[in-house]
Amino acid sequence: MSDTLLKVRNLKIGATVYPPGEKPHDIEIVHGVSFDLERGKVLGLIGESGAGKSTIGLASMAYGRGGVELTGGEVWVNGRDILKTSHSDIRNLRGGEVAYVSQSAAASFNPAKKIMDQVVEAAVEHKKFSRKEAEGRARELFAKLGLPDPDNIGDRYPHQVSGGQLQRCMTALALCPEPDLVVFDEPTTALDVTTQIDVLMAIKEAIRDTGVAALYITHDLAVVAQVSDDIMVLRMGNTVEYGNTDQIINNPQEEYTKALVSVRSIEHEEKKPTPESVLSVEGITARYKGLNFDVLHNVNVELHPGQTLAVVGESGSGKSTLARVITGLLPPRDGEITFAGRKLSGDLKGRSREDLRELQMIYQMADVAMNPRQTVGTIIGRPLEFYFNMRGAEKRKRIIELLDEIELGEKYMDRYPAELSGGQKQRVCIARSLAAKPKMIICDEVTSALDPLVADGILKLLLDLQKIEDVAYLFITHDLATVRAISDSIAVMYQGRVVRYGSKSEVLSPPFDDYTDLLLSSVPEMHLGWLEEVVAHRKMESAGN
Amino acid sequence: MHPIIKLVSQRLALGLLLLFGASALIFGLTEALPGDAAQAVLGQSATPEALANLREEMGLNRPALTRYFEWLGGILQGDLGQSLTNKLDIAESIGKRLGNTLFLACAAAVVSVPLAIFLGLLAVRYRNRWPDKLISAITLTTVSIPEFLIGYVVIYFVSVKLGWFSSLAMINDTMSFGQKLNAIALPAFVLTLVVLAQMMRMTRAAILNLMQSAYIETAELKGLSNFQVIARHAFPNAISPIVNVVMLNLAYLVVGVVVVEVVFVYPGMGQYLVDSVTKRDVPVVLACGVVFAAVYIGLNMVADIVSILANPRLRHPK
């Protein structure tokens, strides 16, 4: 018997698209991809969104998401072409021979059923184990994956465990029926960087101990370098480069792969603090209505004109709450905010139009921050009308200037948000906030939803605009690479407190406090064996674990 | 305290409060109408002296608030008062009529609820294909036509032309269950047509919405059959929206049957209410209003409570 478990030949995948105002037509999204996967090996599929990597992963289960159809080629699993096999055979394949771990375990678990019922379902359905055996196996897997209280965690409902734990439960769900192949589709992307390491390590050990083969799909080359034997780089449905992990990371041949390997190449010289400040936050303590504990405790930070303060921390650390307090959406219980030399009212209602104009905000999700029924010109023009009373030709001229500044140009003026890519949408949001001529912009995870290369472009743009417009940024992020790239000073937040604060060089130089050390060491690095090194040297566990 | 108990008791308290408010509103509105019970009893040609005497006798000269609380106190003890026109005990008359209305509503519900859910599932199964479009088109047509028109059209074709059923849905105690069913077949059919569309479309929307969830994909990728995916994974999450729309329509079946009952001369609450309004029998109108309000609020409260119980986040807090 051959050792090849999965053999894909010239796989073509298509979909029917329904563009507004046009006739539906078919497009091809994967154009003839081929690869082999041996038993017990891990192949990393890497690429940006739209590269077709998830689509290819699901094709190994003969599954097309949405209206996606497998239009050509061959997919051989365990010696038969699953694109030509019967319906009942496909049902045996799914969950029995090939299992799937999705990006968001929180969404992929049925909220109405206990975790155990869902973990053992496939194993029992495919008669691999009796219900009792499957439960025993699930508990073993829970223990192996480092879940707390492995004997009882299965009796809980999905909402009763944390995101990192649920992602491990999803891995247990996939491994429970003893499949030959597991498709991991961005299994750690939605997790905090410190939690990601634990889950990554758990997945890696589970793969090693069970001898299962895996397709590991991610956009993060540094992550895939830690777990896979081979890597295939995909772009827009084509194979860019396919080779073993060592070669791809250390000796990439194609330009695109080189760009992925060397991403985050932004150089930013740290600016020295100036005596004046644009924003000063003093002793802010805040809590949400209905909670009986504070979400922010005595937060003090300062931002100088034309500079960038990065606020960094895990989810739940209070960084977005800080933004809500500064914008007036959440009045603080205690403390003061001074902005551009004047005290800001804690409540949004008490703020003048000038306060609102000078303090703008850009959000993580550009597509929900814009009215889908307004054109780009209307969206950017609105603050011009509202704050400066601009009309007609004057307004139009300014809109075009702004469109040029964000490197889109006049031709985008009459387009709708749906016609723009993710990066372009975020650029329009930037232009909208700049239109108000603010002194400061709060950027809340503005690059988190974007592909690395696109995110890089946005960061470069923000830095350039800072030089031209002399605007200050309060940059909220969980991504330390972003912090390194653009900040002048940094505040590290942990459980509602600022645990480390200072200029970039101070904060990023040792000696570190334990939390900053954990955070810094958790950022995946693009060299082989990094995961084992960092796990061996950790001093503390992450809070969200 | 367990959050479920708290939420459910909140709903119950809110329901009672609403009912209290509704009774005040109904009483207040009938007070605001021109004329009163004395006027109604004596008719337009009554002399002012006779009216004054009767008002004194019936206690109508006392303040409205006093009479409201007397009336409310009576209701709480099961005493709905006496009809002005035939001096019969209202509670007794309503009891029989309400029974008839509930019988008709139940018959319509027994047919329409399963049919609507089945058609909704069918529409999901064949979404955007001809069975889906056909189901949507037919149900939307029937819901768009006023029910009295459907009623008369049905009477014209089914009872006048074909002679299958009687156009009068008269029932009485001497009839057997089968005879009663036969008598109410037409009104029940019309009511079914009226409530079908909303329930069917809501079921379709609720399930379709869920079919796009990531956990449905997970279930499909476990190799489960279509039926298992829908029954085990989609249905438990669709209970809440479906129950809500079903209850709303059940309430409509009881409260909104007035027109259909009149069209088919059916001796239910609707007929009774319309008769009493034309006869200016204020106590009966009040009593009917309160009974309708109670049914409406009660069914919606049940829907709320089922929704709460169907939510695992509330059943099993962190």
UniProtKB/TrEMBL annotation, chain A:
Any Gene Ontology biological process: peptide transport
Keyword annotations for this protein, in alphabetical order, are: ATP-binding, Hydrolase, Nucleotide-binding, Transport
Compartments in which it is found: Cell inner membrane
Q: Primary place of residence?
A: membrane
Membrane disposition = Peripheral membrane protein
Q: Which GO terms describe its cellular component?
A: plasma membrane
List the PROSITE patterns hit by this protein, alphabetically: ABC_TRANSPORTER_1 (PS00211), ABC_TRANSPORTER_2 (PS50893)
Q: Name one GO molecular function term.
A: ATP binding
Q: Which residues form the ABC transporter domain?
A: 6-261, 279-520
- Catalytic activity, EC: 3.6.3.-
Q: Which domain of life is it from?
A: Bacteria
| Pfam families the record matches | ABC_tran, oligo_HPY
Q: Which PANTHER family match?
A: TRANSPORT ATP-BINDING PROTEIN
**Protein name according to UniProt:** Glutathione import ATP-binding protein GsiA
Species this protein is from: Ruegeria atlantica
Q: What is the lineage of its organism?
A: Bacteria, Pseudomonadati, Pseudomonadota, Alphaproteobacteria, Rhodobacterales
Automatic annotation (TrEMBL), chain B:
Q: Which terms does the UniProt entry file under GO BP?
A: transmembrane transport
One Pfam annotation, family name? BPD_transp_1
- How would you describe this protein's topology in the membrane? Multi-pass membrane protein
Which keywords does UniProt give here?
Answer: Cell membrane, Membrane, Transmembrane, Transmembrane helix, Transport
Under the heading InterPro entries, the entry gives: BPD_transp_1_N, MetI-like, MetI-like_sf
Gene Ontology cellular component terms for the protein in this record: plasma membrane
Residue ranges annotated for the ABC transmembrane type-1 domain, each copy included: 98-303
This protein is called what?
A: Glutathione transport system permease protein GsiC
> What gene name is listed for this protein?
gsiC_3
